Amino acid sequence: MEAPAQTEEKTTGWRGSRELWLDAACDALLEGGVDAVKIQPLAARLALSRTSFYWFFRDRTELLDALLERWEARNTASLVAGCEAYAETLTEAVLNLTAVFLEEADFAPQLDFAIRGWAHQSEAVTARVNAADDRRLAAIRAMFARFGLPPDEADVRARTVYLVQIGYIAMQVRETLATRMGRIPAYVKTFAGQAPAERELARFYARFGYKPGS
Questions:
Q1: Of 75, 78, 157, 212, which shows the fewest CB atoms inside 10 Å?
Q2: What distances in angstroms separate CA 30 from CA 23, 78, 128, 131, one per listed residue?
Q3: How far apart are CA 140 and CA 138, in angstroms?
Q4: Pair 24, 69: CB distance under 8 Å
Q5: Are residues 114 and 30 in contact, defined by beta-carbon separation less than 8 angstroms?
Q6: Cβ–Cβ < 8 Å for 5, 63
Q7: Over its length of 214 residues, how does the chain's per-residue pLDDT go in tens digits?
């Protein structure tokens, strides 16, 4: 169905908005996989007419592509930004990256899980996931290289960090904040090859409102 001409109502109004439809599609993806992302059920979820959808997307394919773009813009971009964040030491850099995985407002693990599940049904999505993984690993390698690690070591340490986190996502591991924080010093030592300084850990804990021993 051809979309109506661009108007003020194209982006907002009683038909909802592009972001509203995309939010609903994302929720459906998380709840039921890509097969749950269908126009009529989304319209029912939003209490809007099916035709309202076409003010914002040409068809379901465009909506699905927008979901992939949102995932890349959210998860991959936040990971890259975490790798590039200022750090005085390698251990601080690893803590910055670790924070990305814990701050789900930026990196959404359930969205990553859903996209990877979708990839099992689509070669095109598999290619997008592989490209995202390559970009993420390149950013982590660059982070290690920034602190003088040789290429081979930077690559192995980057894979160690990333594959551990992907394992958390794939296994849908659930830990309490205290449990995860209790493991952070050992994780950092494993990833970086050196233990974080107490002041670095203190800043990291404060970022999440965590007080050791509480």
A1: 212
A2: 11, 19, 18, 21
A3: 5
A4: no
A5: yes
A6: no
A7: 444 434 434 444 568 899 999 999 999 999 999 999 999 999 999 999 999 999 999 999 999 999 999 999 999 999 999 999 999 999 999 999 999 999 887 899 999 999 999 999 999 999 999 999 999 999 999 999 999 999 999 999 999 999 999 999 999 998 999 999 999 999 999 999 999 999 999 999 999 999 987 6
Half-sphere exposure of residue 182: CA atoms within 13 angstroms, side-chain side: 7
Residue position matching structure tokens 């749950």: 36
- Cα–Cα distance list, 172 to 3, 68, 166, 194, 195 (Å): 39, 21, 9, 28, 27
Helix ranges (DSSP H) in the chain: 18-32, 39-46, 50-53, 60-71, 77-84, 90-102, 109-119, 123-146, 151-170, 177-192, 198-207
- Angle, alpha carbons 70-76-80 (nearest 5°): 140
With CA atoms as reference, report the closest residue to 136 among 94, 79, 98: 79
| Alpha carbon 41 to chain centroid, angstroms | 25
* Structure token pair of residue 50: 């099916």
